[in-house]
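Lecture notes, continued. The same structure-token format from the folding unit now serves as the input rather than the output. Read the line below as a description of shape only.
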């Protein structure tokens, strides 16, 4: 969320951000509630001071005055109770509205309500030209008996998968390879749980607004997370991080779960859009310096691109529009990998800078050299997610005989040149 002082002083900028991000926000109602809650707090403080003054003078008051003083103190107490009840109601309404306030997007973001306004920054790699009829990833899997996609559906439902043999090993090898690359770049590898409490989803900005996308474990009031970012953001919640501990670089690995609400009928076949997957997330906590967080944004993006380049997968970098980047993002770049069977690029990575919008929700702070406590900046990026990345990997490296030639970095891990 944004700081209250910023919202009060820059209402036009907040209104524009809401319009550009296609966020329904009644800013006038928020500002009115802000004024009302502040007035109620002042009134309650004044009444308490008045009651305390009566209490302080009660012992020395004349006996004939004490009944009136007692009655007055009681009346003030009742008035305080009424005001506190009103404050609780208005504060709850205010807090709910405040959580809906979007971040101010960076000036270079394309303005538009959805992904149709995204722009291509650049394209990298060479799209393969096959001298044979290429297969899609499902046909390759079936030809080589690398999964039990049909058998698992009666067990776990649609949008699930069951890899086997060499392909199951490749999924693990990919993750190990990516984890070693990030740890060599100074990231601390973290294995984080796939379950989290509702407040952790609020801290990242996933709640309110996207509850229907998460699986809910009602008995324990827990949700299954769709990204390691949810656990990592709240890991230091409530702490004040000393300056010499920043930046904090995490490589969070976890199973992830998404209900894929709103994607009915899309990508049901194969591995592109599944309910359960594994993801290695780059996550950064740094000083609230726009230049520093911009440098980390480029570093995270570079790491993801370098992996695709090493895997010889053609891709394009996307500048996300204001309406596609989500409420909390200051800037977002997607990476889309080339999928030959579809004849187009499909998203495999996303890189986001949130400035202090997320930190304010999660109460993530640091103490600068002047001992001033400030909110940090946070960033996140998909380093590697499977099984989705297996789709372009298999299809781009297939051979005429239905095999898959592995890119060089994976050959030693897989004990051979072919899958």
């Amino acid at each position: 969320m944004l700081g209250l002082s910023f919202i009060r002083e820059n209402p036009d900028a907040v209104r524009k951000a809401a319009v550009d991000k296609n966020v329904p926000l009644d800013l006038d109602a928020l500002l009115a509630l802000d004024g009302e809650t502040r007035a109620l707090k002042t009134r309650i403080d004044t009444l308490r001071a008045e009651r305390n003054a009566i209490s302080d003078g009660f012992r020395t008051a004349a006996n004939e005055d004490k009944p009136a003083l007692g009655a007055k103190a009681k009346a003030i107490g009742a008035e305080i109770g009424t005001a506190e009840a009103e404050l609780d109601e208005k504060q709850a309404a205010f807090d709910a509205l405040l959580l809906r306030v979007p971040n101010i997007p960076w000036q270079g973001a394309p303005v538009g309500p959805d992904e149709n306004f995204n722009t291509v920054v650049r394209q990298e790699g060479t799209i393969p030209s096959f001298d044979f009829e290429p297969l899609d990833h499902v046909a390759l899997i079936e030809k080589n008996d690398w999964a039990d996609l049909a058998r698992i559906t009666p067990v776990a439902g649609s949008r699930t998968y069951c890899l086997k043999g060499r392909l199951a090993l490749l999924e693990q090898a990919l993750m190990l390879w990516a984890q070693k690359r990030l740890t060599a770049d100074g990231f601390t590898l973290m294995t984080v749980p796939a379950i989290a409490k509702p407040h952790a989803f609020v801290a990242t900005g996933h709640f309110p607004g996207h509850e229907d996308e998460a699986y809910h474990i009602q008995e324990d009031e827990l949700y299954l997370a769709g990204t390691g970012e949810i656990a990592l953001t709240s890991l230091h919640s409530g702490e004040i991080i000393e300056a010499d501990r920043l930046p904090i670089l995490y490589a969070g690995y976890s199973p992830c779960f998404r209900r894929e609400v709103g994607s009915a009928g899309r990508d049901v076949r194969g591995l592109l859009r599944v309910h359960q997957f594994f993801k290695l997330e780059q996550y950064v906590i740094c000083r609230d310096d726009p230049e520093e967080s911009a440098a980390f944004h480029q570093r995270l993006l570079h790491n993801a691109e370098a992996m695709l380049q090493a895997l010889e997968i053609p891709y394009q970098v996307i500048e996300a529009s204001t309406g596609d980047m989500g409420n909390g993002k200051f800037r977002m770049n997607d990476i889309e990998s080339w999928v030959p069977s579809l004849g187009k690029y499909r998203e495999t990575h996303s890189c986001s800078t949130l400035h202090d919008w997320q930190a304010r929700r999660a109460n993530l702070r640091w103490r600068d050299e002047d001992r001033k406590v400030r909110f940090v900046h946070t960033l996140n990026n998909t380093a590697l997610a499977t099984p989705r990345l297996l789709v372009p990997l298999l299809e781009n490296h297939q051979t005429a005989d239905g095999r898959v030639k592995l890119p060089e970095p994976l050959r030693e891990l897989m004990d051979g040149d072919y899958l």
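Point for the exam: Residues 66-98 form the longest helix (33 residues).
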